[in-house]
Amino acid sequence: MRDGYQGNSNLKKAGTKLEFTQEQLLEFTRCIRDPIYFIKKYVKIVNVDYGLVPFDMWPFQKEMVEGFHANRFSICKMPRQVGKTTSVAGYMLWNILFQDNYTVAILANKGALAREILDRIKYAYEHIPHWLQQGVLEWNKGNIELENGSKIFAYATSGSGVRGGTYNLIFLDEFAFVPHNMAQDFFTSTYPVISSGKTTKVIIVSTPNGLNMFYKMWMDSIEGRSLYTPFEVHWSMVPGRDEKWKEETIRNTSEEQFRQEFETEFIGSSATLIPGSKLKTLTFRPPIHKKEDTDTYEEPIPGHTYMTMVDCSEGVGLDYSVISVVDVTEIPYKQVLKYRNNKISPLILPTYIYNIANKYNRSFVLVETNNVGKQVVDILHYDLEYENIFRLEYHEIKGQNISSGFKRGASFGLKTTTSTKKIGCANLKTLIENDKLIIYDFDTIAELNTFVRDKDTYKAEEGNNDDIVMTLVFFSWLTAQSYFKEVTNSDIRQKLLDERNLQLDEETLPVGFINDGQQEEKTFDGKDLWETVRSRGYTSSGFEFNK
Q1: With contact defined as beta carbons under 8 Å apart, do 335 and 297 qualify?
Q2: Structure confidence at residue 393 (pLDDT)
Q3: Cis ω for the linkage preceding 332 (within 30 of 0)
Q4: 279-499, what's its fold?
Q5: Among 256, 264, 254, 188, which Cα is nearest to 232's?
Q6: I need a labelling partner for 29 at 20 to 30 A (CA). Which of 87, 281, 316, 480 fits?
Q7: What are the C-alpha distances in Å from 285 to residues 298, 433, 454?
Q8: Maximum Cα–Cα distance across the chain
Q9: Which band of pLDDT confidence, cut at 50, 70 and 90, is reported for residue 539?
């Protein structure tokens, strides 16, 4: 029950009475006022070379604690092995010792890691003088409780971890390693706990791990879109780490691993459909309206043409049903709305599609019909009587094509095949790399960062989703269809070809020969040629280009 509490002589028993000396009272008062003084003087850690030693804080660790103390919301982007968790542990220990009824929640991507952090606090607690300790009531693997009413709990980061509790401080360790969807669910369930008080602190500390929820929160803090105060540490701020150390570390690991774990770069997965260098340039922006599962980035504009793509799921909490709306009035195309929900019934989804498509100027709708999508598109057409739904016809050689009318054999919706997915992925890659499809939504960018090659196709990495990306794959497949070009009066392939030809023309300067009959031929390039021609009064017949 008590994890060795009763027989642990290093712990002060509840109800123990102690008489303070004058010196102890002064020290106690100073510790109450200054967490850094307390941590430096009384917190001990285990050093791999020297064993149990005082925690002699480095300058950036002091800055960290000062930031935690001064701000309600802190987010830290830090390299590996810089004592970040130890610094936070010391601050949490100070809080429970010197504040009554103070409750702390430690959350990590795994429960075992959260308990390991709690063990560090317990170990440090055991090695501070008895006159600084509070009496111990509980001393378990997952929580401790002190006589002053203060408590610490260790949880895995999950939606139910801290739901229903009241906490003064929530610490999220290595938050970048929590799966993206779990991270979102966690904040959905946890934020009410955070916002229930006016002094509740949240400390998020992590090494980057791709472009995920931690990346979004970091960027929001840097750009002033949130109340989180950012704090960043570079590996060179750690004593003993120099260029020689860097070279040795890279030789023992890899350049990419060093950039992510020590340079703290946000590097996406390898083998993604869109190259990492391009993904890093994609900039998300907050929606102008956010209502439940719908993020709106632009309201419909009269006269504009929109396409609505739908990926359907069974609504059982696994894959998501997604509705994406793209403005195709002009190139570049623009993502203007995203709806995503993994619990909506296929019987209700058609109503959402109907309302969104109607709002966006009765936009054209393309529904993927591999599973429950056939039921969804039938309800949308027959029950809700929505007319602007793409029909497809199938040819043995050409495959699926958008039908321009009510041809025999044509059916509503797109059936995803190896061929349609391959074409859609290739076109999506071209559109994004050439800035012909503007993506505003963070969740879309996050999915693109985990949309990776798997044998002969692309799909989400294990533990991630690709439902939003797939709606853009459908859209990209659609852009190559003849009927799409007729409806939008635009040809993305011709647009790219024209731009390429123009670029080649601009890069190729004309080279010519001028002969006035009095001197040998001279060669001129570009601008110099034209200036010479004009200054000498030559006409176009007075020189010829060297092909």
Answers
A1: yes
A2: 84
A3: yes
A4: Nucleotidyltransferase; domain 5 (3.30.420)
A5: 264
A6: 87
A7: 11, 19, 30
A8: 115
A9: very low
Single-letter residue type at 248: E
DSSP string, 384-411: S----B-EEEEETTTEEEEESS--TT-E
d(CA 209, CA 132) in angstroms, rounded, equals: 39
What's the CA gap between 174 and 207, in Å, rounded?
6
pTM: 0.73
CA distance to 34, 262, 468, per residue, from 31 (Å): 5, 33, 52
Indicate if the pLDDT at residue 35 is higher than 80. yes
Cα dist from 520 to 150, 517, 523, 532, 543, whole Å: 96, 8, 10, 15, 13
d(CA 474, CA 367): 9
Domain with CATH 3.40.50.300 in the chain: 58-267
Three-state SS at 136? strand
CB hemisphere CA count around 32 (13 angstroms)? 10
At residue 9's C-alpha, the angle toward residues 8 and 14, to 5°, is 85
Contact indicator for 156, 114 with CB cutoff of 8 Å? yes
Nearest of 202, 241, 246 to residue 221 by alpha carbon: 202
**Catalytic positions, please?**
174
**Residues near 237 by beta carbon (within 8 Å), at least 6 away in sequence:** 58, 59, 60, 82
Q: Tell me the pLDDT band of 279, cut-offs 50, 70 and 90.
A: confident
Provide the angle, in degrees to the nearest 10, between the axes of the packed helices 35-42 and 59-70.
140
Measure the CA–CA gap between 12 and 127, rounded to whole angstroms.
Answer: 11
Under 8 Å between Cβ of 204 and 74: yes
- Per-residue tokens: 241: 């780490």
Angle at 426 between CA 423 and CA 432, to 5 degrees: 135
> What are the residues whose beta carbons fall under 8 Å from the beta carbon of 49, sequence distance 6 or more?
none
Name the residue type at position 149: G
**Dihedral sign for Cα atoms in the order 53, 57, 61, 66:** positive
From 7-16, 90-99, 521-530, the region with the lowest mean pLDDT = 521-530
**Cα separation, 47 vs 53, whole angstroms:** 7
In sequence order, the β-bridge partners of residue 296 are 289, 337
Range list for CATH 3.30.420.240 in the chain: 279-499
In degrees and rounded to multiples of 5, residue 59 shows phi and psi of -55, -40
The pLDDT tens digits of the residues spanning 384-438 come to 999 999 988 877 666 788 876 656 667 888 989 888 999 999 999 999 999 999 9
Instruction: Calculate the average pLDDT of the chain.
Output: 85
DSSP string spanning 17-42?
--PPPHHHHHHHHHHHH-HHHHHHHH
Helix (H) / strand (E) containing 374: helix 373-378
For 148-193, write each residue's pLDDT tens digit.
Answer: 999 999 988 764 556 667 889 999 999 988 877 777 777 776 666 6
Of 348, 392, 387, the residue nearest 369 (C-alpha): 392
What is the rounded distance in angstroms from the CA atom of residue 7 to the CA atom of residue 170? 30
d(CA 84, CA 64): 9
Q: DSSP secondary-structure letter at 463?
A: T
pLDDT digit string, tens, across residues 102-128: 999 998 888 889 999 999 999 999 999
